[in-house]
Write a structure and sequence with these properties.
disordered N terminus, 50% helix, six-stranded parallel β-sheet, four-stranded mixed β-sheet, binds iron/sulfur cluster, alpha/beta
């Protein structure tokens, strides 16, 4: 079973970020940002589309039960089988049960953030089933034994030389560092797996309630092979992927590829409504969908936080985020990274477990500016910071008592001018006790020692007004 949560934590990861991550991440995200800007500029109605998409998403969030029920009815009528999973463990159990019933030994997977979320590969492995990732990036990180570090490009943190070394080591070959050659090696290795697999596993970008259709948007063609070659297919999809109808879909498809990879449309857009029909040659004979809650219903109770479910997982917010670009995706500690991870993970895992994430932001607002569905990410971050510190109707406060006390004292000092002025006179004398000969403070007392663990602190010499006067 999945050992949820698999959250590792911001602090632990930041202590072990390899130096190469920011370089590789910045090169890749800068390419995405440039591509997005060019495609957006071609569409004069871009802002209008963003507003329509935001309105559709909000409407769907408010009526999620209605649309999910409609989807279930239509998908079932088309011959598919719907399973509801309340937790990650439930979802893993459902998928492994289906696999065991069919004697599955090998499963091929297309890229799916939902299966990353529930740690499905581990559950399948425990059940004796080999699950092979077939998206190139996912295949690379599966070989590396890590999770994804970007929503769209899971192996974005690796340079081509590092991937060549990985292929050489894991596939026992002498792999060159040429990207085309590396892709060819992966394609040849995976081809046989596609043909031999007993089961295909995927996620979905959207579920269209109107017809019970699952929509998959991909660039590599592996999604089509996963969902058509094996006789058995299982899709794992979060409840938030539901949209009302095909008219809504046209809006999201216009926004998704442009925001994600700077394409007008992704290479493959697949619409799957149930299993193979009698008159059709390809497609699975059995089609199951596992609709995953895993804490989402709870998030829906928060009128501010639930806007996170407007997300269409384009990754644009991560590409422009100064924090993400400097620390990379692993620093976010869970399957989803960047600003969207910073607002989703604390809500799903709880503000106690992922307490640091709402603070992993400069609140510069670049994420909200590029978000194609207008998620007010900085507003949600501030809202979650308040929940961490003070608690609210949804959650109790989770900020440790000493930090809360320090915040209360700071608030008092900043509100009372005479205390502030007195403090600015006393502080330089107190800080000088900890100062080194070079003028820096290498070890400060609690709570500032959390900072000095990573880097020295400049000494406090004067308050702002005194400093300003001197200038
Ligand atoms: S929050 Fe917005 S920008 Fe970020 S991944 Fe989701 S849709 Fe894209």
């Amino acid at each position: 079973m999945s050992e949820t949560p698999t959250y590792i934590g911001f602090k632990e990861y930041t202590e072990h970020i390899p130096a190469s991550i920011p370089v590789a991440v910045q090169q890749a995200t800068n390419r995405f940002v440039g591509g997005r800007a060019a495609r957006v500029a071609e569409l004069p109605q871009w802002e209008e589309l963003r507003q329509i998409a935001s309105d559709i998403r909000l409407h769907t969030i408010e009526n999620m039960d209605v649309y999910l029920t409609q989807f279930e009815t239509n998908f079932t009528n088309a011959g598919g089988q719907v399973h509801w999973a309340a937790t990650a463990d439930d979802a893993c159990q459902i998928v492994t049960d289906i696999a065991k019933e069919h004697g599955v030994k090998t499963a091929v997977k297309s890229k799916s953030m939902a299966t990353e979320e529930i740690d499905l590969n581990k559950a399948l492995e425990k059940a004796g089933i080999e699950a092979i990732e077939t998206d190139l990036g996912e295949y690379i990180i599966q070989l590396a034994g890590t999770g994804p570090s970007h929503i769209l490009a899971p192996a974005v943190h690796l340079k081509k030389e590092e991937i060549a070394d990985l292929f050489s080591e894991k596939l026992h070959i002498d792999a060159p560092s040429d990207p085309i050659e590396l892709a060819r090696i992966a394609r040849e290795t995976l081809r046989k797996k596609f043909l031999d697999a007993d089961m295909g596993i995927s996620g979905a970008n959207f579920l269209v309630a109107e017809t019970g259709t699952l929509v998959m948007v991909t660039n590599e063609g592996n999604g089509r092979m996963v969902s058509t070659l094996p006789d058995l297919h299982v899709a794992v999809v979060g409840i938030d992927k539901i949209i009302p109808d095909w008219e809504s879909l046209t809006v999201f498809l216009k926004l998704l590829a442009r925001s994600a990879t700077g394409q007008k449309l992704s290479t493959y857009t697949q619409f799957i409504t149930g299993p193979r029909r009698a008159e059709v040659e390809f497609g699975p004979k059995e089609f199951h969908i596992v609709i995953l809650d895993n804490g989402r219903s709870n998030v829906l109770k928060d009128p501010v936080g639930r806007e996170v479910f407007k997300c269409i997982r384009c990754g644009a917010c991560a590409n422009v985020c100064p924090v993400y670009k400097n620390v990379g995706g692993f620093a976010y500690g869970w399957f989803i990274s960047g600003p969207i991870g910073a607002i989703l993970s604390p809500q799903i895992l709880g503000t106690k477990t992922a307490r640091e994430l709402p603070y992993a932001s400069t609140l510069c607002g670049a994420c909200a500016d590029v978000c194609p569905v207008k998620i007010p990410i900085p507003t949600i971050l501030r809202h979650l910071r308040r929940r961490v510190a003070e608690g609210d109707a949804v959650a109790l406060p989770t900020m440790p008592a000493p930090i809360r006390a320090a915040a209360d004292i700071t608030s008092l000092v900043l509100a009372q001018n005479w205390i502030y002025r007195l403090g600015t006179r006393i502080l330089p004398a107190v800080m000088s006790v900890f100062e080194r000969a070079d003028g820096w403070i290498p070890t400060a007392p609690y709570p500032l020692n959390r900072w000095t663990k990573g880097r020295p602190l400049p000494p406090f010499t004067a308050g702002f007004r005194a400093w300003w006067k001197k200038r």
